[in-house]
Amino acid sequence: MPTTMNTLRKTRAAAEQALREAKTDGAHLRLLDLLHALKAYEEAVGGDPAEIGPRLERLRTATARVVAGARGSGPVSVPVAATVRELDESLARALWASLGREPELLAG
Fold first, then answer.
1. CA distance 94 to 3
2. 28 close to 15: Cβ distance less than 8 angstroms
3. Residues in the chain with pLDDT < 70?
């Protein structure tokens, strides 16, 4: 069983808040897909390094679908050489912006 690393805490917090506020079934399903993609990515980080790239791409695409509210969106832009912290902040910032706010925790 793969070890799950909770590496993207800000992204998870934003996704969970968005899920609590989801007003439509479509939004709810997109957020569940995002949370599944997030878990898959974190499991790859804690287990199979060969799976990190494909799972990261799925996570970026799932985040873009939530932000855009449509299935046809491209992935959220994150530099290829981004650190895990930069990745977490980029994805979380996109999610919070889609909710119309940015928590103070992201400001620092």
1. 27
2. no
3. 1-5, 70-81, 103-108
Which single residue is written with the structure tokens 């299935």?
71
Q: Which sign does the torsion angle of CA 17, 20, 21, 27 carry?
A: positive
CA distance 95 to 82: 18
CA distance 60 to 70: 14
Residue-by-residue DSSP string for 18-68 = HHHH--SHHHHHHHHHHHHHHHHHHHHHHS-GGGHHHHHHHHHHHHHHHHH
Query: pLDDT tens, 25-36?
Result: 999 999 999 999
Rounded Cα–Cα distance for residues 26 and 44 (Å): 27
**Every domain of the chain and the residues it spans:** 9-100
Which of 6, 65, 1, 2 is CA-nearest to residue 33?
Answer: 65
